[in-house]
Design a protein that fits this description.
Layout (H helix, E strand, L loop, with lengths): L13 E2 L4 E2 L13 H8 L17 H5 L3 E2 L9 H8 L3 E9 L6 E3 L3 E2 L5 H11 L3 E7 L6 H4 L3 H15 L3 E6 L7 H17 L4 E7 L7 H13 L5 E5 L7 H20 L3 H5 L2 E6 L1 E2 L5 E2 L1 H13 L4 E5 L30 H10 L30 E2 L4 E4 L2 E5 L3 E2 L12 E6 L1
Parallel strand pairs: 3-4, 4-7, 7-8, 8-9, 9-10, 10-11, 11-14
Antiparallel strand pairs: 1-2, 4-5, 5-6, 12-13, 15-18, 16-17, 17-19
Length: 427
């Protein structure tokens, strides 16, 4: 969800203190090295060089519950066995990046979709059992198409190759570092998502970005403003509430409430409409910053998601949905959770969500009517528990402010030139 460097390049899933996901990598060092795992995923038959079996799609509730899976790294599990054990029907395959510095899509940034043979095999196996896949583009680190393709149209053309080759009914834009700190790249990515939505009727589009204890950070809010400016509404905006000072499910649900307010402020939505466009993408077990999210936490967030009619509930990753061999917690791993569990415990929660909450269909464009509260402020509301650094923007009592330097629990004030907050005027 917030997520991945090319699978062969980094030992951790997400960088500490950023609440953005990157891939936790097992001992394997290159794509394609997991021949045994791919064979297990394949079931029978060889990989086709081109297309995969046509599917009619599953319905948005399954795409909304699809957990992330890396079939070419991190000791990939047998997707068919996971389906049999849990009833899960959809998976979010990760990650498409730019091949080198070119505007060409490749798995992990190295394996071109034109020549990769493992993914078609995996997709065929899942579809052969009545399931389907979504593909996630981006993740933490690596080079994204939005950074190199130059325009939204060129970026969309690159992703369209992925949709066409795998006959996709769903796609996820995982907008994280370093790309989402680049306004031109985010313009390209959001523009590409809008174009793909227009050119592929019925395509399920999710936008996943970093979560913080305030909902999302400055860059996440700027991404939402970009979407508003382009008149684009995906099926959902999902945050990843972990790796940012989170302590259990209560902190996660609190972040979801605060993110809901950001969506209301940005798009002029009611609380209920905002929840119908909001999703959550969690991390099971131990996170990069040694936060722990166990089965009870997933249940609590699931209860919140169903009670508030959230549009998406998923997690990173199926590769990690099993207990580590030997010591239960050997440290962060890309292929086990580092908590006590049975195989596929966490995937069973996404299955429950798929059966409990079919997401509603979003409007085609965001409304431009300003909310009544808190005014027309589009920056996130100031929070006493959030650490702000120089340049961070907030709204407070109808005014916009930006931080001059590091601050915590200092109320923005419109008076006093020597204060930490600079008053940027009324919203």
């Amino acid at each position: 969800m917030e997520r991945a460097l090319p699978p062969h390049s980094a030992p951790l899933h997400r960088r500490p203190r950023t609440a953005r996901r990157r891939a936790a990598v097992a001992v394997a060092s290159t794509l394609g090295l997991v021949a045994g795992g791919v064979a297990a995923l394949a079931g029978t038959g060889s990989a086709a060089a081109g297309t995969t079996t046509v599917t009619t799609g599953l319905g948005s509730n399954w795409y909304a519950s699809a957990p992330y899976l890396m079939p070419e790294d991190n000791s990939p599990p047998d997707a068919a066995a996971v389906m049999d054990a849990t009833g899960q029907k959809a998976f979010q395959l990760a990650f498409i990046l730019a091949q080198g510095s070119s505007c060409a899509p490749a798995w992990g940034g190295t394996s071109s979709i034109e020549t990769d043979t493992a993914m078609p095999t995996v997709i065929r196996t899942i579809r052969g059992k009545g399931g389907d896949v979504s593909v996630s583009v981006g993740g933490y680190g690596g080079t994204k198409l939005g950074q190199v393709c130059g325009t939204p149209e060129a970026t969309a053309a690159g992703y369209q190759q992925v949709i066409t080759r795998y006959q996709l009914k769903a796609i996820d834009f995982d907008l994280e570092e370093p790309e989402y700190e680049n306004s031109a790249a985010i313009h390209n990515e959001i523009g590409a998502a809008r174009i793909l939505q227009q050119n592929n009727p019925g395509l399920y589009v999710s936008i996943t970005t970093a979560g913080t204890t305030s909902g999302t950070g400055w860059f996440g809010t700027q991404m939402l403003n970009e979407a508003k400016a382009q008149g684009f509404t995906p099926n959902n905006y999902s945050i990843m509430p972990f790796d940012g000072g989170f302590n259990g499910a209560a902190a996660q649900t609190d972040a979801l409430v605060k993110f809901n307010r950001i969506l209301q402020t940005t798009f002029g939505w009611s609380e209920a409409t905002a929840y119908a466009h909001e999703g959550v993408s969690m991390m099971n077990g131990r996170t990069d910053t040694a936060e722990y999210f166990r089965q009870a936490d997933f249940q609590t967030v699931l209860d919140f998601a169903t009670a508030h009619n959230l549009a998406r509930y998923t997690y990173w990753s199926v590769n990690r949905d099993r207990q580590c061999p030997g010591p239960v917690d050997p440290g962060l791993s890309g292929s086990c959770s580092s908590v006590a569990q049975n195989d596929w415990d966490f995937t069973k929660y996404t299955v429950k969500f798929a059966g409990a909450t079919p997401p509603t269909t979003p409007p085609t464009t965001p409304t431009t009517t300003p909310p009544t509260t808190p005014g027309s402020c589009t920056d996130p509301v100031w929070s006493a528990s959030t650490v702000y650094t120089a340049g961070n923007k907030v709204s407070y009592n109808g005014h916009r402010y930006h931080a001059k330097w590091w601050t915590l629990n200092e109320v923005p004030s419109a008076s006093g030139q020597w204060g930490v907050w600079a008053d940027d005027g009324p919203c």
